[in-house]
Give the backbone structure.
Amino acid sequence: MRYLFAVFLFVLMIPCYGQNTDSLKKAAAGNNPAQKRLAALTQLGALYENKGQYREALNYFRQAFDIRDSLDIVKKSKESSIEAYSRGFVSDVMAGMQGKSESEQDILKTIDNKKSLNDTLALSINYFNLGILYKGKKEYAKSLAALQNSFQYADQIKYAELESSALNELADLYERMGDYHQSVAYFKKHMALNSAVYNSRNSKNIDELQTKYEITQREDRILQQQFEISRRNYWMAGISIILVLILLLGYIYYKQTKLKQSNIAMQAIIDTEEKERKRIAQDLHDSVSQTITAAKINLTVIGAELPFVNDEQRKRYQKAINLVNDGFKEVRTISHNMMPWALHETGLAMVIKQFVENIETDAISINFFSRGIDEHFDDTIETILYRVLQECVNNVMKHAQATRIDISIIKEDGNISMTIEDNGKGFNTADPDKYCGMGLNNMQNRIGYLKGKIELDSHEGRGTLVSVYVPLGGK
């Protein structure tokens, strides 16, 4: 299209003397291609203009303009066609005037207001409207002045579309006034301005397309770089996560291994302690008990053979026999407490009852309640619970100055709970020496080995409560 416009302008500017008018008119006939007709009509307009026959020249120029405007290539680019835009602009202005029914006084009043505001665009449009209004009233002199003012204001702001419309209206106005020379001149300016604007817009469109292409290329490169960065970040994040997982798994494995080693060590300590207790208990039972028994037998024989001088002598002898009996009972109690032989046979409840009977005195009463532990269930758990109970009761007997101990052991829902409560003097739990003295750390280690927990609650003057919780199968 841009080349067509260039040819069109070139033809307008060259002299056309000597041309065959009849052949041009034949070429401009309706049965010829549009481009051929356009060129012929343009040359006819130029020929008649050079001859001074401006009315005929204007007629041919208008036909050429209409053909050019109707070409398919122009229709396909209506959005960038200056002619279509200008014609649409004029139609909009006329429609706006008819819709508003503005009078001459209204437009002149608007022009005065816009002059005070120095609104060049509004002045150009309103002068254009005023020129159209005057032309419709056939007040051609006023219309000419108004349209020339519209063109001048549009030229100041380089509003090419409005300039073109004003030139087109001026050409039409001069034609109505019978001044075909001026009409041709203004119409040629109108066509030249349209062509220049169209070419400028085409060039601008090409520049814009080039700019958009470069921007698109740049954006593609940026997106590619961002993709590479994102991919690298994903790889780094993935590697970091894998490393963290490896470290976490290593730490878990280390903790499990350490816990396993700790459990093995604790089991070894418990086994060693129990073996040592069993050895000592066995020695007390087999050696010391037998020795005391033999001493009692010999004393009994001696007492039967020797005459007693008086009752005092007999009382001293009987006292010796009683001491031997007490010693024998004490050894049996110690032996039994160190190794309850019936623990693996009769169950934890029976062993604790025997333990309570052995230590209960007139100075302290012991209440024992149990449920669910009458039958044997696990050697290690029973042994550890028994040792913890022994340690707690011994602490009460030694330090608490209590008159009552309440013991409760309940096995249900896959766990065992044990409480030992006394009404003694209590102690300050914030004092670490008390914990060490009571062997609490040893008890905590044993219960921890069973994956249980032990809690101690004590206040001075209000006794002590020891609570133990052990899950069955927690080792």
The chain has two domains: 2-210, 341-471. DSSP finds 17 helices and five strands in the chain. The first helix runs from residue 2 to 13.
